[in-house]
Amino acid sequence: MKEIVEIALDKELDDFSMSANFYEEYEMDSLGAVALLVEMQKGFKVKVPETEMSKILTGNDLRELIMKLIRNKNDADGK
Fold first, then answer.
1. What is the pLDDT of residues 9-55, one digit of tens each?
2. By residue range, what is the domain housing residue 45?
3. Which ranges carry the Carrier domain (predicted)?
4. At what angle do helices 30-44 and 59-77 cross, to 10 degrees?
5. The whole model's pTM is what?
C-alpha cells in the first residue's frame, strides 16, 4: 500500500499510517487521487469505479476496496 500511495503522491512517506487521512496528513489533491486510482488499477489488475474513489480517505479504506474488487473479480472469473 505504502508504495502505491508514494507513487501516486510522488513523495516518500517515512511515517506512513494505514489510518492517516490522505488528504489531510499527506496533502493529496485531486490529481493525486487520480494517480492513486491509476496505480491501484495497474498494481492490482482491477478496475476501480471512479465513484469509489471518493470513499478512499485512508490506507485502510484503500485496502478494503482493493480486497473487495479482487473478490468480485475472482467471483466473476469463477475462481
1. 999 999 999 999 999 999 999 999 999 999 999 999 999 888 888 89
2. 2-77
3. 1-70
4. 40
5. 0.84
